[in-house]
Design brief:
Largest sheet of chain A: 7 strands, mixed
Order of helices and strands of chain A: EEEHEHEHEHEEEEHEHEHEHEHE
Oligomer: homodimer
Chain lengths: 330, 330
């Protein structure tokens, strides 16, 4: 399901990145970084909540806006009942929509917001996402105290929060189209290979977007998946070629690989992941390049793995979903 | 944040209700009921997933539609990472948006869908929600084997699934306006009194909706909150009167009280709750009354308590949110 937009603009973004992310190649592009995963809070969950809260505050400051100027906040994260989003947003007293698409949350939020702005129902909408390496590890994998060994296909949940302000006021950065993805079941069961669960969904969404907008891979300077990692990226390339006869070329990059220096950051294994992974990359270096007209048009395809520890335990597959948003400079 | 709609219609609904719900006063209004909480599945989580899946299938059948006719499914539930929604929807291969607003999920979904239909981006959208007494008890409260004693203010999570098909094709049931609520923190910490956490949010949303649409309580035949229960209903009445000088009169009813016969169903305590609670009531008896023009205009104000067992354990408050949708007969 693909939409076109006439009047949706990016006013500004904010990025707060954690200790592993600031050791990566994008360190100079983030608005704010920090060293201690507790972020001055008593628990990791409270740290993630405060990160999301701070990213909204930072965005309001960067945009010279007050909370009263914002019509709506849309937010989501990985934790049970998206508590970092709910608790991180509450003090702003702005109408709120909670969403869940795992690591595809950010583009789902942008799609809902773009429609509300383009249909002239809202003027200013903030979309916020967060993830935290320790809250995610604790919830999805093993007690963090175990220090369990990771396989090479495992991804590393990024720590941080990122917000974007979409508006009806003209800027030179525009959201021009989007595609809502379907859930794709690739019969994947290994939580240490989520790239394989998400790559087929990314392929489905990219193919639908190209077809519905009558564009080709070459019409984009970058097609950026969210967090497929090294192995998921390769699988996506294969599926696109075998199933659709489409060559992604070097136009496709994966945010999970751009966020870190995989050669020197050994903890990262196959790449980064988490709802904050793709926005940390796109809102920092990529939108900067777009703003400066070094590149002209990108397709952001955030990718989510849909499962819970209980669904895994009950032998359900890990499902994938991907939502795409096209951003252009004018 | 309030929206008006010109061309959003209700095509049809489906309701599947569990053993406790079929003992209540609405038993004859449900499309389908069942007796065993396992619903022929091996686990309660798989039962909830299948309920959601079946409610979509039933809705398609009732509407003489195939899955290819549906542009989008929006779904959410109470479980971690909304797995009943993700797994329940996947086989339909329809574009999907996952949402989370606890028991206010259904109206959040209707608002997102109504905007997409009214702005002519989509023709047919299904919104689905589910809850299951045992999956919710297991996740939020105590191991079900404990058989823990409940306090009188505790609510009882309804079991079932419900779907609604919104469309741009004229029917005599119309969605005419909606209000997205803010998160309200009433400093409530008792998970056995969620009515108190949600009532202030319901008050805020009802007041905003009345103000923004320039309507009065008497302009509605019914103002239906989601699942405040006996004590939350009383608190809402008090807040509306003290804070806004608005008398809700007998126009306000709570779906958590309408779903069961509290005098004879002692397990239910203060009333029903869960994302399926308000749609089971509205999609059955209430929309029937509306369709038959016994009543003309209702305001459905589903109410959600935002928290997780971890947030409670870390001494965070239970937050409330409420989203409102106005339905009318033409």
């Amino acid at each position: 399901m693909t939409f076109n937009y006439e009047n949706v603009y990016i006013e500004n973004t904010s990025t707060i990145a954690g200790p592993y992310e600031k050791k990566g190649p994008l360190k100079d592009y983030f608005d704010k970084t920090f060293d201690n995963l507790y972020y001055k809070e008593k628990t990791w969950e409270k740290a993630e909540t405060r990160l999301l809260n701070d990213s909204i505050n930072l965005l309001l400051n960067k945009s010279f806006m007050r909370k009263e100027d914002i019509d709506l906040v849309i937010a989501g994260d990985l934790l049970n009942q998206i508590t970092p989003s709910c608790f991180g947003v509450k003090d702003y007293e702005i109408p709120f929509l909670g969403i869940f698409a795992a690591c595809a949350t950010v583009t789902e939020g942008m799609i809902i917001a773009s429609d509300l702005i383009d249909s002239k129902r809202a003027k200013n909408i903030i979309i916020s996402t967060s993830s935290h390496n320790m809250t995610a590890e604790k919830q999805f994998r093993n007690p963090t105290e175990y220090g369990a060994i990771k396989t090479k296909t495992a991804t590393f949940t990024a720590t941080g929060a990122a917000s974007i302000l979409l508006t009806n006021k003209k800027t030179n950065l525009k959201i021009t189209s989007s595609t809502i993805g379907k859930i794709v079941d690739y019969k994947q069961k290994d939580p240490f290979n989520m790239g394989a669960a998400m790559a087929p969904a990314a392929a489905d969404t990219i193919y639908s977007h190209l077809k519905n907008t009558k564009t080709k891979v070459e019409d984009y300077d970058l097609i950026l998946t969210g967090d497929l990692g090294k192995y998921g990226k390769k699988l996506l390339k294969e599926i696109m070629w075998k199933k659709y006869n489409i060559d992604l070329k070097n136009i496709h990059k994966d945010c999970g690989l751009l966020l870190y220096d995989l050669n020197n950051q050994k903890d990262i294994k196959a790449g980064g992941s988490g709802p904050v992974c793709s926005p940390l990359v796109v809102y920092s270096k990529i939108l900067n390049q777009l703003k400066n007209k070094e590149i002209k048009r990108i397709l952001m395809v955030s990718t989510g793995a849909l499962f819970s520890p209980i669904s895994l335990f009950q032998k359900e597959n890990i499902l994938g979903i991907a939502h795409a948003v096209c951003m252009e400079v004018e």
